[in-house]
Design a protein that fits this description.
seven-stranded mixed sheet, 357 residues, globular, single chain, 2 domains, 11 strands, Pept_asp_AS, Helix Hairpins, alpha+beta, protease, two-stranded antiparallel ribbon, Cathepsin B, Chain A, 8 helices
């Protein structure tokens, strides 16, 4: 009997080790909680995959404790049946919520000028909209970018919207420079503050006043805002222009749907609990009346289970979420949309109205 018990115990230990050493991005409810030794093995592998290197004395151990707490949260969430989304060990798994918020959530609702709310995308009874839209399939989006540890989400959301609009209107997809916005659109009348945060709408205003924005091939991203504006040195380089910009109707998911059917739309969302998002339709928890992160809505659809969602392109790299994207619950019971997605959408304009394609 004792031999049998020892055999079963060894078998369970081996099984646990195999499960816990599986893909780091896919920690699910099928994996046991494990002891510290097993968690440390996962941690070491995660450090390598995410190219993490801590120089401060004791920092690696401190980060391990945070990592372990986040792993417990992931396991607890994924163990609940019928969740609409899954959590995983993203690149942010060594950060506390406060650290994540301070570094990566720098979107600002405050504008330097009163918004111009257009009615071109105001939803009216009788409007016929596509059941599904995905601007990725229409070739209107460059590959997902990564803001790194710079709080420049506002620049990425603005640039993504202009890239998409330029493709729709001209047929050409050009990757544009977030770094120009970080270096040049700050101070004076601008409400943007480089890596300390900003607003996509104020970035559109800069692009209009500046006569366009340069490509990132000649003004590449550096993940900081310490350099002086270099755009004046690149007057012979190619620019992409917009005519103007406006706010789409506020607090109206149907109007946002109409807008997204025409072009990718910059929005603000409250993204604190998206830190460990891996896949599925994100339903929260999140604040519905407040935004702290600029992102780009690039489509919408419905799952086979009937879950309506927005397709949102983030700026946290392609190894976060669903290859850099998140599905966010759509047709929310609150007018603001889930996580505030419909509070204040922004869209650039070029050569008049756009048609649905």
């Amino acid at each position: 009997m004792a031999t049998l018990i020892r055999f079963i115990t060894v078998a369970l230990v081996i099984l646990s080790a195999l499960l816990l050493s599986s893909s780091l991005g896919g920690v699910t409810a099928t994996e046991p909680k494990g002891n510290d030794k097993e968690v440390r093995r996962i941690y070491e592998r995660w450090l390598v995959e995410n190219r993490k290197n801590y120089n401060a004395l004791g920092e690696k151990e401190r980060r391990f404790n945070i990592f372990r707490d986040n792993l417990k949260l992931i396991e607890a969430h994924n163990s609940v049946p019928d969740r609409t989304y899954e959590l995983g060990l993203t690149r942010f798994a060594d950060l506390t919520d406060d650290e994540f918020r301070a570094i990566h959530l720098r979107g600002k609702m405050v504008r330097t000028s009163d918004p111009v709310i257009g009615d071109r995308y105001l939803y009216k009874e009788g409007d016929v909209l596509p059941d599904e839209v995905d601007w990725r399939e229409k070739g209107a989006l460059v590959p997902v970018k990564d803001q790194g540890d710079c709080g420049g989400c506002w620049a990425f959301a603005a640039v993504g919207a202009v890239e998409g609009l330029n493709k729709i209107k001209t047929g050409e997809l050009v990757s544009l420079s977030e770094q120009e916005l970080l270096d040049c659109d700050r101070g004076g009348d601008s409400g943007n503050f480089g890596c300390l945060g900003g607003n996509a709408a104020d970035a559109f205003e800069f692009i209009v006043d500046n006569g366009g924005i340069i490509t990132d091939a000649v003004y590449p991203y550096t993940e900081n805002d310490t350099a002086a504006c270099k755009a004046i040195e690149m007057v012979t380089s190619r620019y992409v222009t917009i005519d103007s910009y406006e706010d789409a109707p506020h607090n109206d998911e149907m109007s946002l749907k109409k807008a997204v059917a025409h072009q990718p739309i910059s929005v603000m969302v409250e993204a604190e609990n998206m830190k460990l998002y891996k896949s599925g339709v994100f339903t929260g928890p999140c604040d519905h009346w407040y935004g702290n992160h600029n992102v780009l809505v690039v489509g919408y659809g419905t799952t086979e289970r009937g879950e309506d969602y927005w397709i949102i392109r983030n700026s946290w790299g392609a190894n976060w979420g669903e290859s850099g994207y998140i599905k966010l619950q759509r047709n929310f019971h609150n007018s603001t949309g889930n996580c505030g997605v419909a509070i204040r959408p922004f869209n650039p304009l070029l050569n008049g109205d756009l048609r649905i394609i």
